[in-house]
Fold these 3 entries.
Entry 1:
Amino acid sequence: MEYNFDEVIDRRDTDSVKWDHARDVFGRDVLPMWVADMDFKSPKPVIDAIVKHANYGVYGYTYRPGRLNEAIADWMQRRHGWKIEKDWIFYMPGVVPSINTAVQAFTKEGDSVIIQTPVYHPFFVAVKYNGRRLLRNPLKQMDGQYLMDYEDLKDKLDMGAKMAILCSPHNPGGRVWKAEELERFGKLCKSKDAVIVSDEIHSDIVYNGNKHIPIASISSELSERTITCIAPSKTFNIAGLSASAVIIPDETLRRRFADTFKKTGINTGNLFGIEAMEAAYTHGEEWLEKLLVYLEGNISFIDDYLKKNIPDLKLFRPQGTYLAWVDCRRLGLKQSMLEKFFVEKAGIGLTSGTDFGEEGEGFMRLNFGCPRSILEEGLNRIDKAVKSLQSR
Ligand SMILES: Cc1ncc(COP(=O)(O)O)c(C=O)c1O
């Protein structure tokens, strides 16, 4: 199979959120490096599976065959060393619906739920819109990386939190949590009997020297209190296909989750999502290995570029994800000015740091899941804008 991640694919006029909706979001044309999908084609086996069914021409109700469970279980074992039972899997249309369902299933209105900020914005929404109390356990910054604050986590658990939502790997910080970190986090949650929801959507995008560890795989004590959310959507660039799953080893938790979700009346999957998920987990590994090499090249490209040309911007070097958390504090701009600066002066669409909570002040998130030429164009635009800002 040939892989060409340098290929520039025109995504305009395809109703892409990232490319076409950007104009509404940013108020003008920008080079879009915001919402988390990639500008690469999916692996060929995924495209083939979809095209085959598209050509078939009959799109009736579709169920998930047993071999899909096998494909997921094999993937979890092979890639993440976690042996799961096939009946622990419960299919969902997305990870965000899974988090919301877990909040509804395992907490009551008024209960407290912990999140580790700055973090993916829908975590805030899942807690607040469901009438739960949000408890922030802010991450600590240390040498251009985030660390967990266990003292604060203990305090928040002591306040009676019923659930903690983990982002593993972490968006936007790019941390791939180490076994010791997850163990400490898990032990504290267990000591207060808090349920763990682990969003592992980015778990397959992990770079050399790091290893994703599903928190539920660490011990039976942790597996029996954890809801693990997974999806092929980030990994294989199929976010538009609504395919994901939760893995819940504990039967009681699994039943409660299923009973809660049943109330939505949603029970079939999108047939293209089903086809794509099976093809991706069964035949997508070789493509993924090549993708990881390319993305790691993009990280080095950003790091070198910033060091050489824009030393006032600092990269929190990601250990996983295709999202770069860029520290812009040395530009000395307030967040609203920073946002304006990137859109109006640089003509680039980034995600504002404060979209991930107030702890993201002074940061912007840049999606580098794109051909290097696009990345270079984005960095050139930023460079030019920063130079003109500093020459004033
Ligand atoms: C941490 C995290 N969770 C969930 C999602 C989205 O999940 P879904 O589209 O499956 O609802 C994203 C997308 O960026 C994400 O970064």
Note: The radius of gyration is 21 Å.
Entry 2:
Amino acid sequence: MTGQFDDRVSADTWSEPPRDLPVIGRPDVLVVGAGAAGVAAALAAARRGADTWLIERLGHIGGLAGFGLINLLLTLDDGEGTQVVSGLCQEFVDALSVRGAARHPRPDEWGSEDPDRVEYWRQWGLIWGRPPENVRYSVAFEPESFVDVGYDLMRGAGVHLCLHRWCTATHGSGGHIEAVVTESKAGREAILPSVVIDTTGDGDVFHYAGAESDLVTVYPFQWFRMGGVSGLGEYGMDGGVYFRTTDPGRVLVPWGGPGAVDFRIDPTDPDDLARAEIECRRGVRAEVTRLREEARGFGTAWLDDIARQLGITESRRLIGDLILEKSDGNRVFPDSVARTGHWTRRGVVYDIPYRCLTTPLVSNLLTAGRCISTSRYVHQATKEIPAAMATGEAAGAAAVAALNHGGLVHRVDVRELRRDLTASGAMVGEGEGLPGPDLRPKPDRGPGG
Ligand SMILES: Cc1cc2nc3c(=O)[nH]c(=O)nc-3n(C[C@H](O)[C@H](O)[C@H](O)COP(=O)(O)OP(=O)(O)OC[C@H]3O[C@@H](n4cnc5c(N)ncnc54)[C@H](O)[C@@H]3O)c2cc1C
């Protein structure tokens, strides 16, 4: 059979006809991905006066921290009782607390090794790592309220939120992104931003724009919640691993990963993701049945909800201007713009240099959240929600600073950025002055899309 499109067909490809896309906006700052990092980035940019757009493929914000049901902020401290993450993350904690939707140890408990207090907070999912354990400044929260707080704050800041839009491509030249392409029920559309922030978790934008990255396969997780559990707090975790939540009789079950799942997936492969969705759901159902049969207090409990976003611990990580390494623990960087403790280790703090958010290959792109430039080891700390919010906040502020330089993120005065972040309540570490020289060879600039 022959047809008018025969010349577009080869063995493995079909050549899409070129077409003009409607331009739906020219924002100062475009944030792609509305998880914890993206919401923080958008808030930070909009509060500094930038016309800020936030696009999200799903019908809600929050990402893993929202209806991904990873509803534990681990951690805001250094493991020794001192807070190291504040800023927008602390603002969320305060707003959640006002709604009765957060639970965390009081400051006078942080660092305590009192076994009763450690055991109490373990039941809330806030104690991890090897003995000797102590009480951390970590927070259990309720996801619906997390999402609501995000909407409220973004409405107040004037963020233009576009839900149900996938970012599927970038176009540009000379290492500069000129257009970001989205797909939705409205078809393909273009947004022409000055600065782009990639908070997709999977690094979709930096991947499309030609930046280098590292990608690993992972065991998927799918956390879920059960209601109607009786006697919580009386039995400890008898018969399973589950955590108390702010709702009476409701628990959060951290299901999945090695042991529960016997296959790894590439989190950027839709076929792998589809398999994980189906297999994990089946596994969750089996675990619900087991808990009802074996765990004390679960006899008449019911399944409340299953995470609407698969639990993906790692995906693409940017290979940026600097890769933060294990040996950088407790190191002072002159260009640190965020910091984080480690949820399983005490006394280790990673100051996160601005160079972990930038790539030498794209001039108007910043990255924040779980896909910033770190080693796999350090990613364990920087992927956590408080750290993701801290790097998101830093990226949002940096994007606005870059607007004075035609969107060029490498021209940002990092000393001024650190001052700006500190003035707004963020914790950026002790480093002084401008960034030191980056002695690593830089690859040639890529195409930017
Ligand atoms: C099993 C598991 C347990 C964890 N436990 C904890 C814990 O106890 N405490 C803790 O603090 N952290 C924990 N983490 C880590 C933490 O949940 C995440 O790393 C963090 O929430 C990441 O935030 P993010 O905003 O970077 O990414 P995400 O939350 O993944 O958000 C990315 C957003 O981008 C959107 N998106 C993706 N691609 C596109 C695209 N192309 N176009 C448009 N939108 C797009 C997604 O829909 C999503 O909303 C855990 C993670 C997992 C998987």
Note: The chain has two domains: 21-216+314-449, 220-311.
Entry 3:
Amino acid sequence: MSNSSILKSSIAKKYWMALTGLFLCTFLIGHLLGNLQLIFIDGEEGRRAFNEYAYFMTHNPAIKILSYLTYISILFHAVDGFILTVQNKKARPVNYAVNNPGPTSSTPARYMAVLGTLILVFIATHMANFWWKVKFSQEIPLHTYKIESKQEMNIPKGQSFYYTQVPSIQPIPKDTNTLEEKGTAIYYKNTNIKIADCYIDLHKVVMAFFGKSNPNGIFGVLFYVLSMLVLAFHLWHGFASAFQSLGVNHAKWTPIIKNLGKGFAIIVPLLFALIPILIYLNN
Ligand code: HEM
């Protein structure tokens, strides 16, 4: 490839990195708002709110499209970033930016690739902890909320239950001969008689993951807090740099964007980090 075509392809890559990076920033805001319910709404109300939210996020068709765009953006951003780093290294075999940092090269700018790789490790671990369980594992318990109609049931020995932690609600036997799940509810089979609302209990999974009752909970908390520090450094440089790659270079707007980026880089990871810390302290 000639020098000019390498340059052209690098510019295109930077452009796509900027677009996917900014899209991922909007994902972070949505994800943060949803997860803040874990610490700002207490008790059964919080549990229900979070489980309903998680159900909506995994079943709404528009959100599903956004989810696929998120996965594609993460992969694109990571692969493009890797190729750009390799191309830059080849173009400058002597890594003078590290050995001889100029006044314009801030520490995060020099370590973006390393920070990005650490974030990728975080995302892979994080998705294995929660996302994988929601999508592919049968381990997550169902949580029932309210029984709307009660009928006498014979519960054979060894029967499994739709269990509930609401004291006034009795466990409902998971009898597939008489019951069926439709959407977020349990019905008597082949009838419209609803017994209970029923959601995958992701709230319990998150609380158990970070809570003190989990002997490894503290390591989970530390891993998340350190990862949010890494995310903060990555965003500190990345947010404003994305606008620069898209060609936004304006006497009035660029300083505003830079300050906005710094605010974003502090507030978003800080709030994310508070979630596991407060869950640990309160559970
Ligand atoms: C510390 C706070 C966080 C908590 C408690 C949390 C919790 C969760 C949970 C419960 C899920 C699975 C739910 C679902 O699939 O809808 C999930 C999915 C996900 N999380 Fe997080 N998360 C946190 C921070 C982050 C951060 C900082 C990132 C990115 C840097 C991230 C990236 C993702 C991604 C990409 C998914 C898959 C989303 C999808 O399928 O649409 N999370 N998170």
Note: Residues 181 and 187 are 6 Å apart (CA to CA).
